[in-house]
Design a protein that fits this description.
3 helices; 6-stranded mixed β-sheet; alpha/beta
């Protein structure tokens, strides 16, 4: 991620099958560094990342994120709850219809933290994804 984080004006980032070289622990790191992360990133998609087990995200790395899609990441153990709850611009969260137990539980915790009046789950969407609007 360090090379991508140097792209200060990056607004859309889609990571899919074959786009990553994984660490031994299957982690994806969005950690804070001197460059300050993805300051302008509005949309992040993690799709078909079959080897992804852990997603590490520091608070403040993606402060402008509006939409997050986590699709078909069958080994992902959970979402970075604290960092996602701290993003005041987050409006939409899309996850698989049948996410892992960890991802599902974390999405519910985010809903509870933000408030059910701002966060609606709808798992009956025709596209067979859960849509969570903040």
């Amino acid at each position: 991620m360090p090379a991508l984080q140097k792209l200060q004006n990056l607004c859309v980032l889609k990571l899919g099958f074959g786009s990553m070289i994984w660490e031994d622990d299957g982690s994806l790191d969005f950690e804070s560094d001197v460059n300050g992360g993805f300051r302008q990133l509005k949309f992040l998609e993690l799709k078909d990342l079959f080897m992804l087990k852990k997603w590490k995200l520091s608070k403040g790395v993606i402060p402008s994120l509006q939409k997050l899609a986590v699709l078909n990441c069958s080994k992902l153990e959970g979402l970075p709850i604290e960092a996602l709850e701290a993003i005041s611009t987050l409006q939409e969260l899309v996850i698989d219809e049948q996410p892992t137990d960890g991802v599902s539980a974390d999405a519910k915790l985010i809903q509870e933290h933000i408030g059910k009046d701002r966060l609606n789950f709808d798992n009956s969407i025709v596209t067979e994804k859960w849509l969570v609007r903040l």
